[in-house]
Task: inverse folding
């Protein structure tokens, strides 16, 4: 659903994936919840928009993320990976939650926060790697992020 919300996949792929998921789950309740979306036509642009709106209503979200650019999506995913790794330690989670979003900023204060985050993560290899990847993404251009994503495929 994250890829759908960030406009990273076509609505048809979202519909197909959700259809497969509901079939595998074999849950009538789940199929009932998504029935209107799963049967929505998606051939024409206005049908695609209507199907997206239906899924947004089902999921309880106001609308899709305004951009379909790859960089904001990748940065968001990277920051979430850091926070998932930090779960279980309230102090560390709070510390990261207040500093990670500043990683995209270019200022003296943001640079200090980056160093604080790197120092906190240094003793944990996985967290350190996630932080490093996050800041690398923050510093890349939209074009470089897109090219990097194509290389991974």
Result:
């Amino acid at each position: 659903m994250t890829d759908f919300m960030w406009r990273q996949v076509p609505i048809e792929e979202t519909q197909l994936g959700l259809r497969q998921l509901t079939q595998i789950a074999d849950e009538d309740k789940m199929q009932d919840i998504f029935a209107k979306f799963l049967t929505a036509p998606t051939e024409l642009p206005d049908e695609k928009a209507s199907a997206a709106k239906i899924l947004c209503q089902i999921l309880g979200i106001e609308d899709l993320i305004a951009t379909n650019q790859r960089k904001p999506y990748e940065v968001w995913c990277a920051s979430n990976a850091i926070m998932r790794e930090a779960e279980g330690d309230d102090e560390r989670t709070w510390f990261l939650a207040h500093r990670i979003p500043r990683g995209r900023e270019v200022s003296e204060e943001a640079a200090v926060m980056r160093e604080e985050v790197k120092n906190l993560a240094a003793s944990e290899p996985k967290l350190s790697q996630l932080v490093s990847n996050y800041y690398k993404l923050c510093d890349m251009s939209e074009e470089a992020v897109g090219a990097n994503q194509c290389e991974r495929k």
Remarks:
- Residues 63 and 120 are 36 Å apart (CA to CA).
- The mean pLDDT is 85.
- Residues 70-86 form the longest helix (17 residues).
- The radius of gyration is 19 Å.
